[in-house]
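On clarity, I found the account of how folds are encoded harder to follow than it need be. Since the whole study asks how a given chain folds, the encoding of that fold should be made plain. For illustration, here is how one protein appears when written out as sequence plus structure tokens:
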Amino acid sequence: MKHCSACHGSEGHGDGLAAEYLFPKPRAFRDSSMRFASTPSGVMQTIRNGVPRSAMPGFSGVLSNAEIAGLTRLVGEMTKGGTSSPPPATPLRFSKPPYFTEGMVGHGSSLYRSMGCVGCHGATGHGVEIDGLLDSMGKPVRPADLASGLYKSGQRPEDLYRTIITGVPGTPMPSYASLLSDDQVWALVAFITRLAPPRLAGQTSGAEFRLQSIDDALLADQSQFGWLDVDHAQVAMRPLWFRVEDTVNAGVSFVRAGDHIGIHLRWDDATCDVNQDSGRFSDGVAVMFARSDVVPPLPMGVQVEHQPTGPPVNIWHWKASRQFDASTGRRHDADEPRVLPEGNYHLFGPPPEPAAAMPTKPADGIDQDLRLDDPLYRTAVAARNIHSDPSLVSHATLEANAVGFGTLTYQPAELQDLESSAVWANGHWFVTIYHSISQPKDGDIQFLPGKRIPFTLAIWNGSKGDRDGTKLISGWHWLVIDGEKATIVPTPATPAR
């Protein structure tokens, strides 16, 4: 229950601690119709794989089959006890998907127009903005973007078939079971799957990673050709606040060089956003590690009522704005914005010289001069805000701990020892965050042999206004430390459709 109640609430009313930070809101099982999981098997599939283009992560590999089955029964009981429609007791049965021929695609194209699908989903499948289109709770809804290739009901042809014949309860999407034959439904499915180019689906949860050995020189330089030999696996990323999103996966690798362990990340981002000011936001990425064998709730390890508490999660938070400052050796602000050279390749190297230390108060504890840092009265420095600490200019990644919303606490400046390197090239970020494991600190994740460490990711796209809780997230995955063994077992990417 701890993983579910953080969003859906302990009683299933969709009012968990994280609900206010999410859009669409978590399903209120007792108060609204089941939509994309209208059968017990559909509920089970949703728990395993999550819901694309939403904040619902997958829990395959996190929860056992027995736990998923138990949650499926609990959801059924909640819907029966409330005002929503419970999943049918008998799973839907239908024929196996046929081979999709060009003739079927053409037939499906004709049906797409004649059955009125084009009126809501548009000629290209991207969906049409329709004023007054509401769900059963009176909330605005938008027709599905079929051309995204990411379907909330599931990625298989069978899932599209099921949605067409059952409709989407609680929304204007009707059932076509009485209007279309089996062959006609499959023809529509064949056409819909052609609306978007094939894409690889990242692992939603439960992927296991192992360390790969690399040369020391690679850690601080993303331009090294040695990175081409590092294997990576695709992890699915999903928005906490709905939007049309191009970044659907992040490539992930864990590496070791000497006594340093790091994570290498790559993801799509059409713009290199390094400035941060009023109305302008930096690109960023974060890795959150659970510091116990028990996986905590996904929203920053939030403590859920009536559930056992665990240690604070450990967070590595990288920002492109800080990486720019680290590569130049000094901080920038609104008076001196960060300026990138022309072109589609920006390599951020190590700082040219050590940064100055944070100014300290006089021995008597009285500040005679609040300027501390410079004549412009930098209040953030005076308040000892860690983001403005001059001694951390060379650190693009800061380390923090948290036990839920409003508890994020950055470690003291003298304990910040994470290092990073980055390059943005032709619409892609490549970032490596690493630190020494020779001197572990309290609050840090411990990379010990034999450990199976849960981790999750977050990505911020500055050009889309991402900041704080507006971001993309992944489900839980594992880093497995096999002693001195340095290999990776990537989860193979599978076609989304």
